[in-house]
Automatic annotation (TrEMBL):
Protein name stated in the entry: Serine/threonine protein phosphatase
Xref: Pfam families: Metallophos (PF00149)
Superkingdom: Bacteria
SUPFAM superfamilies the record matches: Metallo-dependent phosphatases
GO molecular function, one term: hydrolase activity
Coiled-coil residues: none
Residues of the Calcineurin-like phosphoesterase domain: 3-175
Organism: Longimonas halophila
Length: 200
């Protein structure tokens, strides 16, 4: 069993980031499911706070920052693995990650989005029984906005049904923070910025 500290959508909230740093030593792995900054601004400062974490850490970009921006910001954070259409084995556990807003958001040019077709390609290599870290939730699971609309990704849902991850960690839809759902036998956690501990 490994103890994961899962979070998402810090959005430049340095109080929340510092609280995660304080909790990280009690976890075996830290998992961040994107949106570390706001509208592509403030990423370096937020990662500067989070990079005090020495615990092995898996991150995916949200739609508030791109993969390249996140990898550049994390260049000197030795504990971290930045994933997007890629995987890593951390402390003996297989992780696979996909970032960005999926499907494409209505937020305009600042939002770093991925189409469903692109997401399907990026998820093609996702292995069975991994921990899937996705910024966007799967369709019809922890993906309801404040008006009750389901805004999640069909490509992510298809990948979950195909590969049966041991856990899915996501964020993006703020009104579903800290909620869990299931697809088949897989638990899906919309983590939120306060952080949720989960054992796998």
């Amino acid at each position: 069993m490994a103890r994961l500290l899962c979070f998402s959508d810090v959005h430049s909230n340095h109080r929340a980031a510092r609280a995660l740093v304080q909790r990280a030593p009690d976890a075996d792995i830290v998992v961040g499911a994107g949106d570390f900054c706001d509208m592509r601004r403030g990423l370096d400062r937020t990662i500067g706070v989070l990079s005090e974490i020495d615990t092995p850490t898996v991150l995916v970009p949200g739609n508030a920052e791109s993969t390249d921006e996140l990898r550049t910001a994390c260049a000197n954070w030795e504990a971290t693995h930045v994933l997007h259409g890629s995987g890593a084995t951390v402390s003996g556990i297989s992780f696979y990650g996909i970032g960005g807003g999926i499907p494409v958001t209505p937020f305009g040019a600042w939002s770093w989005d991925v189409t469903e077709a692109q997401a399907a390609e990026l998820l093609a290599d996702c292995p069975d029984d991994a921990v899937l870290v996705a910024h966007s939730p799967p369709n019809n699971c922890v993906d309801q906005d404040s008006s009750g609309r389901h805004l999640g990704s069909t490509s992510i849902r298809d990948a979950i049904q195909r590969t049966t991850p041991r856990l899915v960690v996501c964020g993006h839809i703020h009104s579903s923070w800290e909620q869990t759902g299931t697809i088949g036998t897989t638990t899906v956690l919309n983590a939120g910025p306060e952080g949720v501990v989960w054992e796998v």
